[in-house]
Amino acid sequence: MTDLTVVLLLSDEWNLRDITCFKNFGESERKMYRYFYNKLTRVATNTYEWTLPEELDSSVIEQYLWEDGKALIWKHEALGLVVTRCNESSWDINGRANRWVPHLDVNSDWVQLPSELKKDECVCIYDLTNHRICRHDCLAHLSDIVDINETIRQQVWNQKTPMLAVVTDPQNKRKVKTAVDNMAHNMKLLFIEKETLEAIETLNFDAPFNVEALNSAKNVNINEALEYLGVDSESAFDKKERKIVDEQESNDEIINYMLLDGQRARNKGNKDMKKLFGIEATVKVSETIRPHDITESMTNDNNAA
User: Fold this and answer.
1) What is the overall mean pLDDT for the chain?
2) Phi and psi at residue 49, to the nearest 5°
3) Helices H / strands E in the chain, number of each
4) SS3 label, residue 86
5) Which is nearest to 149 in space by CA: 305, 4, 25?
6) Any residues with CB less than 8 A from the CB of 15 and at least 6 apart, and which?
7) Whole-angstrom Cα distance, residue 114 to residue 100?
8) Is the pLDDT of residue 18 over 90?
9) Angle between helix 58-68 and 27-44 (nearest 10)
10) Taking the model in full, what pTM does it have?
11) Is the pLDDT of residue 9 over 50?
12) Of 10-24, 219-233, 288-302, which range is least confident?
């Protein structure tokens, strides 16, 4: 593989930090971005249930798979079996990695890391069967979700219709302020001079109020992101009322494929761990998300076809 090919392969990779940058966001946008990011993260990292030896923490594996798209399992001479982040450093003719460089989340001078690990020294588990695709691609919807949410916030703010007082005389300013304060305290009867009353008017932003349509558009983006994670976010009532049978079955099939893709990638990692380390590990889709075995379901569907 030429140096140019390696450069191109590396340039195609991107990190989750590339799309969690808040430099163009206001404070409320940052908060909502974190909220929706954390919401999708909680869903993604609790989709699969593992059975692993005590040395390996499945929550760490799922965190790395979600954030980096891969997690490296290897034996450290002092720590034993560990799971770490990694970078691909060498590829075969098909562009599949065959060497990896491990790295840690924290700086520990006493932990000596190997400069590189080969396929016969480690097992790299990928998030999906195609190593260049990750479930965190669904975060592409986050900017639109936050943007629509901020538009809704602005429209709600516009409904407050604040009062505007235009005065030229400082004496009249005090009178206007007293009158507005009395209004705020729900006084039953106000005596206001004519010039004071004329100084008070309600601001009209003349902006449309279509929060319902905006909220529907936001939910479309959220549902798209959840579907990419293999989560059926539509209620049974919505399915019956708004979907015909073929559409409902098609939606379920897409979700099954999404879930099966991640399960196959994890199962391959488990097979490699058994071959290299003799570890018996299993993984399945959480029954909270899918109460039946998706592998069996997909097999039955294919046989019926």
Assistant:
1) 82
2) -110, 130
3) 10, 9
4) strand
5) 25
6) 68
7) 10
8) no
9) 130
10) 0.75
11) no
12) 10-24
Between β-strands 122-126 and 70-76, what pairing exists: parallel, antiparallel or unpaired?
antiparallel
The answer to whether 273 and 279 have CB atoms below 8 angstroms apart is yes
Residue with tokens 């190593």: 131
For residue 26, give both structure tokens. 């206001």
Residue type for position 24? N
In whole angstroms, give the CA distance from residue 264 to residue 187.
70
Closest residue by Cα to residue 66 from 198, 305, 276, 262: 262
CB 72 within 8 A of CB 86: yes
The string of DSSP letters for 206-270 reads -----HHHHHHHHHHHHHHHHHHTT---S-HHHHHHH--HHHHHHHHHHHHHHHHHHHHHHHHHH
Confidence of residue 207 (pLDDT cuts 50, 70, 90): low
- How many C-beta atoms surround the C-beta of residue 228 within 10 A? 20
